[in-house]
Each structure stands twice: as structure tokens, then as C-alpha cells.
Write a structure and sequence with these properties.
9 helices, four-stranded mixed sheet, globular, six-stranded mixed sheet, about 240 residues
């Protein structure tokens, strides 16, 4: 489900779990092991995490998400949060190479990395709100630090995908790569290796003031309550969590 390879001084971790690279607990465990192995290699200067096929990752394994919604223990979510924190805490720069669409937990993983490069044709988003699920692996906290509070509220509350170009404009993605994507991602990783980087959770320049954010939240609440309530409430048997 996860492959680890070395490209000279760059470690490449590939998520390979067809058809959509869903982040089930087994895959996350394999990702954790691969990451720990990668950062222990002395000559490695940066780590690239990417996906096989047409997805970086479409998010969590649906059966495990359903168990969580229906009252599961939440242990899997805590494991996921801790793994993403370990990636964010790495002393080596970690680049999320978004070769394909990136949704839900896949985007939360990417935002825990220090940099994000993307193919120009992909889409990104946090669609789980439409199932009544709040992004639970740190995405709701990291997104406003990258995109700003207003854009983060839009993405989290509406659950609609955005394009790679929009993600670049708002700061979620650092660079778009056309042509040979894998070669471009490796070149980017070598370019930033050895340079200081800022962890996503330490970014504060886009958070805004309490007064500004109060207005953003109030406008979002007003826009989200339609005739049928919140989007997730329109589906029988679902509610916000």
C-alpha cells in the first residue's frame, strides 16, 4: 500500500492503494513506518510524499469513516492526528507532491507537510462536511493558516472542491508543475532542501483579528442555513458531528 524509494538524496514515499488511495488505518500504519525509515537515512535531505494513479488521496477509508460517524472509538483518528504531527515536526522538509485529486484526509496530510506542489489539472477539497463530518486530523486548524480564514471557512463549510490554480492563488499550494510531474517534484524538493521552513501550525500571518473573523463566521452561518438547514442535514439519518 505504501512504497519507499530513494532518489539520491530525496526519499520518495508513494501511496499506492487503488482505486483512490484511501487512507485506511492499515495504509496509515504503513505510511508511518515508511516515514520513520526515510528520516533515519543519513544522506536524505528531503522527503516527498505522493500518490500512485489518478489520486494523491481521496481521503479516509469510507468503511472506517462510517464506523466513526456511528459512534466508533476514535482511536484511528487520534493515530492519524499524531502521524500528521510527526510529519509536521520533522527536521527534514517534507513535500506533498499532489499528482492527482486530493480530498478529505488526503488534503489534511498534504497540509501537514511543509510544502505542496501540484499538477495543474487536479482538484482539492474537504468534502466530508457534506456527510456531517468536521475535518478531524488537523485540517480545520491548518487550512486558515495557509489560505486565510475566509477561504478556509468557504472550503470547510461548503465542502466544494477548488482547482489547483485557485489553491495556488490562496496559498494552499506552493507551486504548480506541468510536464514531467515527478521530475519537477524532485527538483522542487532539492531546491528547498537545506533551507529553513515554517511549519503550517506556526503560520499566523493570515489568521486575521478576532473582529474580522467574527464577521466572516457570522456571514458563513447566515449563508449556510437554507430552507433545509445545513447541507449534511438534507440527507436522512445524517447530522453534524
Amino acid at each position: 500500500m505504501v512504497r519507499l524509494a530513494k532518489q539520491n538524496d530525496i526519499a520518495v514515499i508513494t501511496i499506492d492503494h487503488p482505486p483512490v488511495n484511501a487512507l485506511g488505518i492499515g495504509l496509515l500504519d504503513a505510511l508511518s513506518e515508511a516515514f520513520e525509515q526515510a528520516v533515519k537515512v543519513p544522506e536524505i535531505r528531503a522527503v516527498v510524499i505522493t500518490g500512485a494513479g489518478n489520486f494523491f488521496s481521496a481521503g479516509g477509508e469510507i468503511r472506517e469513516v462510517e464506523q466513526l460517524v456511528n459512534g466508533g472509538s476514535g482511536g484511528e483518528m487520534e493515530f492519524t492526528r499524531q502521524l500528521f504531527l510527526r510529519i509536521e515536526d520533522s527536521s527534514l522538509p517534507v513535500v506533498a507532491a499532489l499528482n492527482g485529486d486530493c480530498f478529505g484526509g488526503g488534503l489534511e496530510l498534504a497540509m501537514a507537510c511543509h510544502y505542496r506542489v501540484a499538477a495543474p489539472t487536479i482538484q482539492l477539497g474537504l468534502p466530508e462536511v457534506k456527510l456531517g463530518i468536521i475535518p478531524g486530523a488537523g485540517g480545520a486548524l491548518r487550512l486558515p493558516r495557509l489560505a486565510g480564514v475566509a477561504k478556509a471557512v468557504e472550503i470547510c463549510a461548503q465542502g466544494n472542491p477548488i482547482s489547483a490554480q485557485e489553491a495556488l492563488q490562496c496559498g494552499i499550494v506552493d507551486h504548480l508543475i506541468g510536464g514531467d510531474f515527478f521530475a519537477g517534484a524532485l527538483a522542487f524538493a532539492r531546491e528547498i532542501s537545506g533551507k529553513p521552513f515554517v511549519r503550517t501550525r506556526d503560520r499566523r500571518e493570515k489568521l486575521g483579528s478576532a473582529e474580522e473573523n467574527d464577521r466572516i463566521f457570522a456571514a458563513a452561518r447566515k449563508s449556510m442555513y437554507g430552507p433545509k438547514g445545513l447541507p449534511a442535514q438534507a440527507e436522512p439519518g445524517r447530522g453534524t458531528r
